């Protein structure tokens, strides 16, 4: 039996394709962004910190007395470093909603964000060696 | 949306807490068609119970057919399973099992762009399901290896026949695996890491 055949593609040296266009809804959304269904916080300027799924979040202080339940939950969970993905999972919030919430907490200096290491042109070989050794120990 | 009180939010078990010295994380993406074993693979190597992050998008956001106007939008939830492996006291590795359809990828900013690399998990009964994913990764310059999940009733092809069928260069590793087994899933991840290392040595990684 012969397997089906594929044709390989070449790198397109350009930025990733834009998100599929959507019609702006209610004026609050920029065209080209998917419409988010959740809002947790009253962030109106739309600015978000560059938060990746694996940005580690660490609490800088105990929850203030005035903290909302979700803020208190985040600060309690982040007494040890925890990724954005884990926060989204434990709090059962969509990742985009988590991003809005954490952006506010960073601005309020209640949490600290530790940026991930990303793939780049001059790849750090020692990093890959560390990952290999870590996997071998599993 | 009902939000439970903070006391009722489950968190990581105490033994799953990362040390305070954890400074940075890296990610590897496991991508493949529905039912190919992404979730099983994440679960078999993860040191924590696998978790799920969700994102919500409207039907219009899928971008397939927007002819019906905004009133026809319906919400779609896209879920992504992930696991975690602590590499050192400073470094953490996350594994994401992501849907094969590119239209979901933009929901998670930088999912592929920032990843060290990807594992394309294939099922030889439905080889063609993985074709588009591989093409997208090639276009984006994301390095990947191919892992063939061995299902008992799946046709078995020699690796070189698969390489020809998948039109993969000789440098791209193709590995057979049984993702239910931790040792096998670990081998796949090690194969990817060694491949990335060889790319780094040759200066080919962009």
Summarize the entry for a quick read.
The complex is a heterodimer of chains A (138) and B (206). Chain A is mainly alpha-helical. Chain A is 30% helix and 7% strand.
Whole-Å distance between the termini of chain B?
Answer: 42 Å
Strand content of chain B: 25-35%
Mean pLDDT level of chain A = 80
Q: Strand order of the main beta sheet of chain B, please?
A: 2-3-4-1-5-6-7
Element-by-element helix/strand order of chain A: EHEHHEH
Total of domains of chain B:
1
The name of the CATH superfamily of chain B reads P-loop containing nucleotide triphosphate hydrolases
CATH C-level class of chain B is: Alpha Beta
Helical percent range of chain B? 10-25%
Q: Uncertain runs of chain A with pLDDT below 50, 5 residues or more?
A: 16-46
SS field, number of helical segments of chain B: 4
Mean pLDDT of chain B: 86
Low-confidence stretches of chain B: 61-71
Helical residue percent band of chain A: 25-40%
Biggest sheet, spatial arrangement of strands of chain A: 2-1-3
Gross morphology of chain B is: globular
Q: Could you describe the largest sheet of chain A, including whether it forms a barrel?
A: 3 strands, antiparallel
InterPro entries (chain B): Gliding_Motility_GTPase, Gpn, P-loop_NTPase
Organism (chain B): Streptomyces achromogenes
Protein name (chain B): ATP/GTP-binding protein
Keywords (chain B): GTP-binding, Hydrolase, Nucleotide-binding
